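Handout, page 2. Input:
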Amino acid sequence: MSNQELLKIAVNAADDKRAEDITALNMQGISLIADYFIICHGNSDKQVQAIAREIREKAHEKGFNVRRMEGFDEARWVLIDLGDVVVHVFHRDERVYYNLERLWGDAPRVDILSGLNS
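Output:
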């Protein structure tokens, strides 16, 4: 499976748990860490955990390895390392504070809406 498929799986899983303001950034040529970053947020600790859990489970179901998941218990900023795709699931307040979209402002955004649920 390709990085695009993994990107779509993670975005759909986040959307299924009603993650808000889902953004995907193409990090190719910008970061050595991953090809894509997904950034989204939930409005409560429980929602942040539900989003992260769903992404992990859907990735496993499709045969992708979740290398690491950090911050789950605190539910303020959960980082899910799927290899070439890294997902950042924030609590709403933390997302505003860290503002990764501004930090990685030179990264082009990926049109994820056309791929949702397809």
